[in-house]
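Notes to self after the Tuesday call (sharing in case useful).
The group wants a holo model before anyone commits to mutagenesis around the pocket. I volunteered. Ligand is protoporphyrin IX containing FE. Logging inputs and output together so the record is complete.
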Amino acid sequence: MHHVATTHDEGKGQYFWVWGVLLILTAVEVVLAYRQVFQPVRMLEVLMVLSIIKSALIIGYFMHLKYEIAAMKWVMMVAVVACLCLMGIFFADAFRIIHLGVQ
Amino acid sequence: MATGEVVHVHAAPQGFIRKYIFSLDHKVIGLQYYFLALTAVFVGMFLSLLMRVHMIWPTAVLPLVGEIKPETYLSLLTMHGTIMVFFVLTTAPQGGFGNYFLPIQIGAPDMAFPVLNMLSFWTTFVAFVVLLAAFFVTGGAPLHGWTGYAPLSALTNAGPGQQLGADLWITSIAIFCIASLMGALNFITTTLDLRAKGMTMMRMPLTCWAWFITAILGLLAFGVLLSAGILLLLDRNLGTSFYVPLVVVNGQIMGHKGGSPLLWQHLFWFFGHPEVYIAILPGMGVASQLLSTFSRKPIFGYKAMVYAIMAIGFLGFMVWGHHMFMSGMSPYSAFAFSLMTMAIGVPSAIKTFNWLGTLHKGRIRFQTPMLYAIGFVSLFVSGGLSGPFLAQPVLDIPLHDTAFVVGHFHLIMGVAAIFGMFAGTYYWFPKMFGRMMNETWGRVHFFITLAGTYCIFMPMHYLGMAGQPRRYSQFTELAYLQHLIPLNTFITYAAILTIGAQFIFVINLFWSMFKGPKSSDNPWEATTLEWTTATPPPHDNFGGRTPVVNHGPYEYSVPGAPRDFVMQTDPASVRTH
Amino acid sequence: MSDVAVQHGIAGAYEPSLFGTYSKKIGMWLFLLSDSLTFGALLFAYSYGRISNPDWPTPFGKASIANATIMTGCLLSSSLTMVLGVLAARRGDFRWTRWWIFATMVFGSAFIVLHAKEWSGLIGEGMTPFKNPWAPNVPQFGGTFFTLTGMHMLHVTIGVIYLGVVALRKKFLPVLLALWLIVWLVTPADSIFHIAVHVLLVGAVVAAVILFLKPKDYDAHDVEIAGLYWHFVDLVWMFIFPLVYLMSTRV
Ligand code: HEM
Ligand SMILES: [Cu+2]
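Result:
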């Protein structure tokens, strides 16, 4: 391996923090789910919000997106989030199917 | 480098295999893609000829294939559609021309990832071979059309072609997805990272913009089709039920339960609609480039063109549901999809107006490439106008699955995109091979093809409204379609003529490659970077230099300039618009 | 600016990159973008099936959830060691880089082993891609579970191989082949992993070809983009875990 010049160098400490937070959030998820604290739909919402926070931490810190330039941040994130949201339209049909009684 | 001029000279690789087979040079890879697509288009065309002949003489015994049975017709249909959409329209404009000219037009020595580029071509090649193999396995090619709708595509006993043939079809599509993903990320990175000094995004030729946006669409769309294909393979081979509800085939209850064919349609069209823009955007880029060059006028509304391409790409992801009005969907979604689809008309109209604005008062040179560019606009308008009709659920329900749709998509996606490729071929041939193509035969080819395609596809709109269904093999016996037989016969004759005329093109292509008059470095007096370098371009495109760009891409008829055009690399001191 | 340009010291001949970084990193990000849609489509297919089948089973008891939680911990910790490896590489400290990458690989392998155990358990209880013992009316349960987690496991496996190649280059090939052989020999012939282990063989062949074509040293940039891939695999699990496991806990 050889050395290449790199620009930014952040402290190690923050990664341990992020790791800790991720573990705690996971623990919270597990406890919530295992105790069945909420109704299923509410549970799904809570879990998804927690997961999105976790992925934001992973993308922002571990994957360094926080330190990339604005153009990259926005283009990448908007593209993928928009596409994933669009797929959400599928669900309208999935809900309809229950009522149609299709097996 | 201090001067920013003379840089590294790459040595060209030696040896036939490294140079022409497993080449890393984007120009060679571009040509490989081009010739792959050329092969594919002839296979696809031959299949369409068989279909057309079968339509009016259903019992005729044809040489080579014998009598076409209804299921054979469906196989031909599937393979025709798949070959045309994937291996022609996706391969030639982007993989072929894009590969060859994107790096040169932005002043790069090569693509950002040459090895990936090579892999991407060879993966496409494998996909093509796997697809063709479907013809030769037991049961033959699949029957499910290029859209592969489940449950037909998900059941192995649903018909003769649905056995191994359908597995090969899906495998081929999955491999093609991977190839396209590799290509797409290469195109995007190259455009972002390898533009020569002065080649800002807003100085890129519109061709580069089109390739760039097409690559983004590909990147976002093909991954979804890949998943859809994997699930389909699992349904067929592992007995999962993603797409299959409880079904009975030939009196036998299948093991599947609880799946939904609509899921396949959603996933497929989530890819499928962006795919039609993947097919047409590069053609739009070429048309813009050529209309400006041959009208000797700057393109009308460069910025509007760029934003229109972006808007089309963006909206293209929100309209897939217009293919599913008939499948039954939530009326609210149908409404939204209908609205979004009509909204796409706006950027499309902007592009059309700008093309006409470019022609307006131009000093037009009617050379073959220009004829094709104009033909592209004509077909785009003729095919596009029926789009807003089909976008409305009330109109789509009677018209869907009739010949009307066949007419619509052939004009706008099929032939228009093919015209873009013809335009590109006639235009860039001198740069690629150092010789000119024959003008006279080019014109003959153009006029026959233009008239021919209109004769084939325009009447289909009428057929569709009269009730002729799509994907039907034999309708000559149906009483209510009797009166359409003469028109169908006319279409078939037109198809035979048009397909015949394509041999003029091929002969012209290969003859000119060896015997055509030698061309200068800039035969069309165009401004973009590919015309500043030698013909054909050296291995690293600019012979050890990196060009410095000082002007926009469409500086024609510049008042006070020494020539009527200013090349992008001309000194900054030359005043432009 | 592109790598090629930077390496040849001609970055000045080009416009600055629109994304302000080197090509390989952009390439990896773009790949991850499309891969996230591939996974997105799978997750949507799963959710679609789940919504339209109201009797979805909820079979994961204490043992399963505990196992999956440990797996999640493994992946999260592997991300930490990975990022520390990237940091070490940036400092130019390649001894530590290697150690951190090894740690990452160990966590990754632990994840795979735990997951394989879980799979075997479920298969033992009678779950297949087309049926499950808990809800005979919902055959999708098995299909979606195996597809989603299988696809993810494949990504983790590729990630471990990728990291091994970056850290050890040619020396990793014998390790990989030995692993392949061992797993192949220990797993019973009717086990799915007896077949799936051939992924390692394919991986070894591909890695050998790549190393043969480009026998170069990997630098901090290569470590960084390998890290991107690894974190992404971790990220995907952050959605699979709650959707597949936590939403199907048995009380
Ligand atoms: C010589 C020109 C062509 C002729 C005569 C022709 C003819 C046909 C015919 C007869 C069908 C079957 C219609 C039906 O029964 O439903 C068809 C379908 C189709 N064609 Fe063409 N075609 C030509 C060129 C193209 C091109 C350039 C494309 C590229 C987009 C294309 C794409 C398709 C597709 C996607 C289908 C639908 C297949 C399906 O239903 O799955 N065709 N064509
Ligand atoms: Cu569409």
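Two things stood out.
The mean pLDDT of chain C is 90.
The pocket of copper (II) ion (ligand 2) is lined by residues B 273, 276, 319, 322-323 (CB under 6 Å).
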